[in-house]
Amino acid sequence: MKQSLSLSETPKPIQSLRNLKLSQKSQKKSQRLSQKFQKQKSQKSRKKSQRLSQKPQKQKI
To answer: Can you tell me the distance from the alpha carbon of 49 to that of 53, in angstroms, rounded to the nearest whole number?
Structure first.
């Protein structure tokens, strides 16, 4: 256990910098992903509404 701890404890300033960069990257990624997901969601909902609107017409015929 002690060995693994010493391994993970690299000089802190470097690690914090790396963590900062990583967190920024992940934030950007998550933002992009969320935007994509929202777009997909809206498209899906649109398709759903279209399908729903078409269904009653089909039933009427």
So the answer is: 6
Question: Which tokens go with 60?
Answer: 């009427």
Domain residue ranges of the chain, discontinuous segments joined by +: 10-34
Distance between CA atoms of 40 and 54, rounded to whole angstroms?
21
pTM above 0.90, yes or no: no
Q: pLDDT tens track of the chain, all 61 residues?
A: 455 555 566 567 777 888 889 889 999 999 998 888 888 888 888 888 888 888 776 666 5
* DSSP 8-state secondary structure symbol assigned to residue 10: -
